[in-house]
Amino acid sequence: MTLSEIADGLEVTSRQRERGVAVADDTETPLVDRLEPYADDLPCTAAATATLVEAYTAGRSVGDAAREAGVTPMTGAKALHRCGVSGICPIAPGRRDVVRDWLAGRTARSEALALAGGDEAAFALATYVETHDPLPAVADAVDAHVAGSAPLGGSDDEVLGDALGSPDGLR
Question: How far is Cα 62 from Cα 69, in angstroms, rounded to an integer?
């Protein structure tokens, strides 16, 4: 049996509506406006968080980005964590189990602090990281902002211009 024999006798009785192409690109929306609906869940204002993200993704340290945003470095680190930026916690992932044990009441704080290998501030930040997940909608907004603000290739004025080699040298 061929396909034309199978389709013999079939007819279209209704038409599909033309819906066009769905557009969900809001990269022109400023980051601060994207963060505003989540301001209550962030450790600082949406404006300060946007400044933090822009400074940090431009290559500045957490401390420098926090100073630029007008917040403490601890608040800056907390905000970046809530924005889904990885690598903010100063305690190694394997040692964060100790923080989890302390939070669960299985270890005394003094023992957990000694086992984690950090100072009071590092332990406090690790505790925050363990008790506050990144906000998915905020992380998506930050990812879209970073992706939209960092085109690769093109002019010599770009930061990565020298890092992107010509394919001519691959022969």
Answer: 10
